[in-house]
Design goal:
Elements: E1 2-3, E2 7-10, H1 20-37, H2 39-44, H3 47-60, H4 68-82, H5 89-101, H6 110-117, E3 123-127, E4 144-147, H7 148-151, H8 159-168, E5 175-179, H9 182-192, E6 195-199, E7 215-217, H10 220-227, E8 232-233
Helix pairs in contact: 1-5, 4-5, 6-10
Length: 242
């Protein structure tokens, strides 16, 4: 089966840049800001205990899992009120976090490949997190961006894929999705009916209980070669999604 792609969607964190170091740095910057401006908060909680508070909060309020910015705001407000500060500390704290969170360094292959692809396809960013590609140095490369907070559901729910197709005016089978997560990106895209490309930068083994990607690439340079052929062929490497 050969399908001609009409649009390409990309996951963000760990697909276009490394995520953990960005989040760790942003949380550290917020913590240092709190220590300077609102020291009663950091006198009671260290950085790790504040992370645990967020985990416990989302366990009690699962709805916050689809809006990580709202989760951070909720917990920062809790810390501020507990320490006797005003609730507006949370607004300022989220601003500090997001400013640092969007200081990302794309992998070396990202800009040259996406610059080439966007001359042929509309590109859309899909993310479960609170990264907004429009606030990064890649803003000029994307036609649209959809987040879990936008649609009220996180991948592997199909809502983001559906909205991406609606915005771009394409059918599911005409969308190629590229991501690093076997379940949230690859299995989710397959179940939706899109073509799924797993970017496996670290040569990880594929989990045996998940239908395989239509294609696996180690870098985005391989993706460009794949898409710039006559179309995306079903490799047969994966089972049909159920």
């Amino acid at each position: 089966m050969r399908v001609t792609p009409r649009a390409v969607s990309f996951d963000l964190d760990d697909t276009l840049w490394s995520c953990d170091e960005v989040i760790e740095r942003a949380e550290r910057v917020v913590y240092e800001w709190l220590a300077r401006r609102f020291p009663r908060i950091t006198a009671e909680f260290d950085l790790e205990s504040m992370r645990r508070i967020r985990i416990e909060t989302v366990e009690r309020n699962p709805g916050l899992a689809v809006d990580l910015t709202a989760l951070r705001h909720h917990t920062l407000q809790w810390h501020a009120l507990r320490a006797g500060y005003g609730a507006d500390v949370a607004d300022a704290g989220v601003d500090v976090f997001l400013a640092e969170r969007h200081r990302v360094t794309p992998f070396d292959d990202v800009r040259p490949v996406l610059e080439g692809l966007r001359t042929r396809y509309p590109l859309v960013a899909l993310t479960n997190g609170n990264a907004d590609v429009r606030r990064t140095e890649l803003v000029d490369l994307f036609d649209a961006a959809v987040s879990a907070a936008d649609v009220g559901a996180a991948k592997p729910d199909p809502a983001m894929f559906r909205q991406a197709c609606e915005r771009l005016g394409v059918e599911a089978a005409e969308l190629v999705h590229v991501g690093d997560d076997p379940v949230r990106d690859i299995h989710a895209a397959r179940r939706f009916g899109a073509r799924a490309v797993w970017i496996n930068r670290n040569a990880l083994p594929w989990p045996g209980d998940v239908p395989r990607a239509h294609h696996e690439v180690a870098t985005l340079h391989e993706l460009r070669g794949l898409l710039e052929g006559e179309g995306v062929r079903e490799t047969g490497a994966g089972r049909a999604p159920k």
